[in-house]
Specification:
Two copies of one chain form a homodimer. The first copy, chain A, has 141 residues and is of the alpha+beta class. Helix content of chain A is 42%, strand content 22%. The first copy, chain A, contains five helices and five strands. The longest helix of chain A is centred in the middle third of the chain and has 13 residues, at 55-67. The first copy, chain A, starts with a helix and ends in a 5-residue tail after the last strand. Chains A and B meet through helix 5 and strand 5 of A and helix 5 and strand 5 of B. Strand 5 (125-136) of chain A pairs antiparallel with strand 5 of chain B, so a sheet runs across the interface. Chain A binds a DNA duplex (30 and 30 nucleotides) through residues 16-23, 38-40, 53-57, 59-60, 79-81.
Chain lengths: 141, 141
DNA sequence: GATATAATTGAGACTGAATCTCATTCTCAA
DNA sequence: TTGAGAATGAGATTCAGTCTCAATTATATC
């Protein structure tokens, strides 16, 4: 059982930061949103609900969530960032359809292992990686 | 022997476009620049040489170069695009140092093959892919 | 509960990359 | 040489994301 709020609280405490109404609203929205969301989308969703949170705070909170390992910032080739929650999810990468925009997740342990090998060869300390494959999904090809 | 100008000309012809002084200047600069360059950098380099080309034209030309397969647009996590010439180069991906910004290229046929498998499984038609590994290089770790 | 202090927020200004507009200039085929 | 379409450049515009700063809020302590 994963507890995003607890995880976030622990992170905030370690940095002497506070869990505010706004941060909690962002966290909940991100965590219960399936898939990949955009910051701008988030401002609208939250506004339509009871809790409006300013754009500045949304960006600031997303950064905290990324930092705390709850959320991952990804680039799907749209010229702006997307975010997905990763706490309790296994690592995956993406197939991105250039026509309909659909995003298919995949996991491949072998690729991960080969990447680790490559880093070792260059004495490179991996922090994160992204594998994006762009093309056309089975419905759009 | 690779002939970028010829390749570009062929592409332009096929689209009923013209090889102008400005387009040629951009192509040459990109092609003879080693590694990964930024659009803004390009405006400065070209200005300092004899041939000044407007920002608009530089962006427009880079798009044509990408389209014609001479150049690849890549995201090195800097919040803006980089470009590298790929004509006559074997495909590669990148290790990006988060501290010094160094970019190390690598090629791995096995990873490529595994990616092809993944696409087949989802009946996904691959057009391009990017693999970026972020971390610290041997001098910065 | 009151208070102090440091953290937090929001509005809106700002930045920087990239795109768009449109009047002017250029290219090239006829 | 000329005309039509293509191309260019200056500057306006867009858009994501960041910054500023005055006003507000959370939490620890009294």
């Amino acid at each position: 059982m994963v507890r995003p709020v607890e995880t976030f609280l622990k992170y905030l405490d370690s940095k002497h930061l506070k869990l505010t109404r706004e941060r909690k609203a962002v966290l909940e929205e991100v965590f219960f949103h399936p898939g990949h969301l955009e910051a701008e989308e988030l401002t609208h969703t939250l506004r339509s609900k009871k809790s409006r949170v300013s754009r500045a705070t949304i960006y600031r909170t997303l950064e905290l969530l990324v930092d705390s390992g709850i959320v991952r910032k990804i680039d799907l080739g749209h010229g702006h960032s997307h975010y997905e929650h990763i706490l309790g999810h296994t690592h995956h990468d993406h197939l991105v359809c250039l026509k309909c925009g659909k995003v298919i997740e995949f996991t491949d342990k072998k690729i991960e292992r080969l990447q680790t090998n490559i880093c070792q060869k260059s004495r490179f300390q991996e922090i994160s990686h992204t594998v994006q494959i762009f093309g056309y999904c089975k419905d759009c090809r």
